[in-house]
Amino acid sequence: MSFSGIALEQKRVVRRDDSITFLGGGVRPSLSTPSMIMHMEICCREALLPHLEEGQDSVGVKVCIEHLAAVPMGDEVTYRAAVQETDRRRVTFAVEAIAGEKTIGKGTHERFVIDVARFAAKLRGRDA
Questions:
Q1: Three-state SS string across the chain, please?
Q2: What does the pLDDT read at residue 64?
Q3: CATH of the domain spanning 7-127, picked from 3.10.129.10, 3.40.50.170, 3.90.1640.10, 3.30.300.20
């Protein structure tokens, strides 16, 4: 299984539910770290999906991300994901988030290709 050369870029506007608001009324809401990471993960998953077999998907297993700068609510962020390495079913992506000309987040994200039915069965077994 090789996913070499796969890359995707997605643009998203920072919404209120993507933002931190706990700093008070005097501070403009800005992109939260968990939301930035979530959008990076979504970009990686959506990059892989067209290349998977029927019944497969991927799940995130590791993130190593730096959040380098604040982006206010309402601004647009470009998320980029590019496959860096494949080891059987483990796929490592280089990820970055860019606002304007500035890199506001970067790092790596690993995903594992799964068989959805088998994954669901394992989860059901844990419920018993």
A1: CCCCCCEEEEEEECCHHHEECCCCCCCCCEECHHHHHHHHHHHHHHHHHHHCCCCEEEEEEEEEEEECCCCECCCEEEEEEEEEEEECCEEEEEEEEEECCEEEEEEEEEEEEEEHHHHHHHHHHHHC
A2: 98
A3: 3.10.129.10
